[in-house]
Amino acid sequence: MARYTDAVCRLCRRAGVKLFLKGERCFTPKCAVEKRKKPPGSQPMRRRRISDWGTQLREKQKARQIYGVLEKQFRIYFGEAQRRPGMTGLHLLQFLEERLDNVAFRLNFADSRSQARQLVSHGHIMVNDRKVDIPSYRVKVDDVVVWKESSKETVLFAQMAGDIPRRPLPNWLSLDTEKMAGRVIALPEPSEIDTGIDVRLVVEHYSR
Question: Are 125 and 46 in a shared domain?
Fold first, then answer.
């Protein structure tokens, strides 16, 4: 499975905003965006004005990096969203939010989406009583997402279960904190997606 393996803090510095790729560290003074305001690499003597295309590209890159999706898969999501009737941008965001690794993150099963992706890949998460080890698996309404029983003996589970909830739970998900079982109760609405992505710019980028 292809994935980004370089320093993720460089992505935040390049975007100029926190993408919250390292969990709790992003809320501390150790955050790279707090320590170094400038983007990585050598800086030009004169800062150039970013073109409209550059602004759209940055927003698309930010969306990819937040959800940990490579370009080919992101383009597939966009193509599917474009074929569906209705708002392309909304469908695109819903596809990204419905990924199993994102749902595990939203349910507070992990501190970051990359950690949630690892949990799924290692077979710690079950959907409707079936082990699913594909991070890009898309959940549906009424799906139940839980930790595998044997995984509840791990130190990580004890850490996650002992500090629930660390983040607010979106309205389209519910969580039984005693059983550590989450349920998808609806499709996410734009107002419930707090990533700060201007999806209009992403649509414009691919529509050129």
Answer: no
Q: For the domain that residue 120 is a member of, what is the CATH number? A: 3.10.290.10
pLDDT string in tens for the chain (208-residue length): 455 555 666 565 565 565 555 556 555 655 655 556 666 666 665 667 788 888 999 999 999 989 999 999 999 999 999 999 999 999 999 999 999 999 999 999 998 899 999 999 999 999 999 999 999 999 999 999 999 999 988 888 888 877 776 788 999 999 998 888 999 999 998 888 888 889 999 999 998 7
Alpha-carbon distance 96 to 119, whole Å?
A: 18
CATH number, position 201: 1.10.1050.10
Residue for token pair 């690794």: 101
Verify that 114 and 167 share a domain, yes or no: yes
Q: Which of helix, strand or coil describes residue 40?
A: coil
Q: Give the closest residue to 181 by CA, choosing from 133, 125, 137.
A: 125
pTM of the model: 0.80
Domain range enclosing 155 = 99-186
Structure tokens at 135: 């991070």
The conformational region for residue 157 under phi > 0 = left, psi -120 to 50 = alpha, else beta, is alpha
Question: Residues 125, 75: one domain?
Answer: no
Judgement on whether residues 88 and 120 belong to the same structural domain of the protein: no
Query: Into how many domains does the chain fold?
Result: 2
